[in-house]
Amino acid sequence: MLSNRLMPPSCRSAVISLLALSLTLAGGSAGAQQPLPPVRQAVSVFLAQQTSGLPGKVGVTIEGVDPQNQLPACAELVPFLPPGTRAWGRINVGVRCESPVNWTIYVPAQVSVIGDYLVAARPIRSGQVIAPADLERRSGDLAGEAPNTLTDMTQAVGHNARFTIAAGNTLRTDMLRLPQAVRQGQNVKVVGTGTGFAVTNEGRALNAAAAGEPVRVRLGSGQVISGKARADGSVELDF
Q1: What DSSP state is assigned to residue 154?
Q2: Which class does domain 114-177 fall in?
Q3: Are the C-beta atoms of residues 92 and 107 closer than 8 Å to each other?
Q4: Domain 180-237 in the same topology as domain 114-177
Q5: Is domain 180-237 annotated with CATH 2.30.30.760?
Q6: Residues 122-175: pLDDT tens digits?
Q7: Of the listed ranges 30-39, 41-50, 162-171, the one predicted with least confidence
């Protein structure tokens, strides 16, 4: 490095100017770092909208974004859920910046849904017709249970058990012999709803399913999608 004493005055001025510019740019870059509160707020509002129709008491925990992130500050944050994801259990919420620059990050979150579900109050034999006395309610995080967990007595009472169910076991639709809502090979209406949108289509069911059970549907385009059978014979898309 040249000593200041060996530099002509014009060179010293140029070096000082360059150093000042470097410090200014560094300060501007640090100041442009994406602050965390707006990201957390955007995710919080988004998940509140996505969970507004869920049964039970909903709780949302949002984990932090890296405080040392090097993302440029954003004026327009747009949260979204990746395809095939719903606001349930442990998820990653996408946050996309649309102005003044484009970037995308994923924020870990936990959605709990505290509500009642059914368990066997006593051992239930295979083939036994289930009565109210065979069931009891428990409260817990439904997001931690199987998707086809039963939550209402009317879903189980009067149906036969497919196999022996031990006392204390959580009841699921696949444990019972339920009437088919969708038959294999049946033409079905496919429906899907979300915040601000609704879609409908038609296809052919690839398997039989009772209400609430999973069913795969081949659309006219040849695409195979998954959803849940409804009591009316339609299929609700999994998002």
Answers
A1: G
A2: alpha beta
A3: yes
A4: no
A5: yes
A6: 999 999 999 999 999 999 999 999 888 999 999 899 999 999 999 999 999 889
A7: 30-39
